[in-house]
């Protein structure tokens, strides 16, 4: 009897167990590649509409260092940051909620040697890989349209992954507090204003001083600053602050998500 018990009791999994979650999601989406690819087109359509249409009606922009760029080149990096945010939020909120509340997927996973931290790291890693694919293709479109002004753009892809990490971690943590689908209205209530007002379509300097500080502390603004600096070549040491903000946001979010998953599913 002792021998049988030793065989069925799960043993701790060594670090890196989240890779099994990534493999599971890859096998799932391999049969649904059209759904996977569809997430790439929305930001590209935004970019094309602005680059071909609106940009013809708006004059050039002068950046803080005196560099003058076209409106499409000004908006494109913000679209890249927004794309990374939206992809991460979708994967780490709606998908996670369905798997947790309805499919009961995580209950099954935690009956194996997988731990809550493995589930959190696996789902966030998958969101990052998916977002990185979209961002890489988006950057290629920017290059094809002549919207990249500097060789620093090679850092735009890692920056988009960092943006995705921040929102994926925070999104998964918030999802563990969701009670029903109606609660996701609060997610949209936060995402849409950030998309519209995080210096996406016009410089942050155009805001009144009383509002500007509020914009500058939002997470998407940090991502927009990073992407715009890299694609236009206006790089400075202050970008480390923006990067640290996003890294801290993602790390805290993952920690909270893993603790909450353990509390909800292992009670």
UniProtKB/TrEMBL annotation:
The chain crosses the membrane at residues 33-57, 69-90, 124-145, 151-174, 186-204, 235-257. GO terms for molecular function: ABC-type transporter activity. InterPro entries: ABC2_TM, ABC2_TM_bact-type, ABC_2_transport, Nod_factor_ABC_transporter. It is a multi-pass membrane protein. It comes from the Bacteria. GO terms for cellular component: ATP-binding cassette (ABC) transporter complex. Residues 34-264 form the ABC transmembrane type-2 domain. Pfam families: ABC2_membrane. Its main location: membrane. GO terms for biological process: response to antibiotic. The keyword Cell membrane applies. It is found in: Cell membrane; Membrane. Keywords: Antibiotic resistance, Cell membrane, Membrane, Transmembrane, Transmembrane helix, Transport. PANTHER family: NODULATION PROTEIN J (PTHR43229). Belongs to the ABC-2 integral membrane protein family. This is Transport permease protein.
């Amino acid at each position: 009897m002792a021998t049988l018990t030793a065989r069925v009791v799960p043993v701790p999994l060594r670090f890196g167990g989240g890779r099994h979650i990534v493999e599971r999601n890859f096998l799932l989406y391999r049969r649904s590649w059209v759904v996977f690819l569809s997430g790439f087109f929305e930001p590209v359509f935004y970019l094309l509409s602005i680059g071909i249409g609106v940009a013809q009606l708006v004059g050039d922009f002068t950046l803080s260092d005196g560099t003058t760029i076209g409106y499409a080149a000004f908006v494109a990096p913000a679209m890249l940051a927004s794309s990374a945010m939206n992809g991460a939020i979708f994967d780490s909120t709606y998908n996670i909620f369905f798997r947790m509340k309805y499919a009961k997927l995580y209950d099954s996973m935690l009956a194996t040697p997988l731990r809550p931290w493995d589930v959190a790291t696996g789902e966030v890693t998958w969101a990052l890989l998916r977002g990185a694919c979209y961002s890489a293709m988006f950057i290629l479109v920017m290059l094809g349209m002549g919207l990249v002004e500097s060789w620093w753009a090679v850092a735009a892809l890692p920056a988009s992954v960092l943006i995705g990490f921040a929102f994926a971690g925070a999104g998964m943590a918030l999802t563990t507090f969701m009670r029903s689908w109606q609660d996701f209205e609060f997610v949209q209530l936060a995402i849409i204003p950030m998309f519209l007002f995080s210096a996406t379509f016009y410089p942050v300097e155009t805001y009144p001083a009383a509002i500007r500080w509020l914009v500058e502390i939002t997470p998407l603004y940090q991502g927009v600053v990073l992407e715009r600096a890299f694609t236009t070549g206006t790089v400075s040491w202050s970008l480390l602050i923006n990067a640290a903000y996003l890294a801290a946001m993602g790390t805290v979010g993952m920690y909270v998500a893993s603790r909450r998953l353990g509390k909800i599913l292992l009670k």
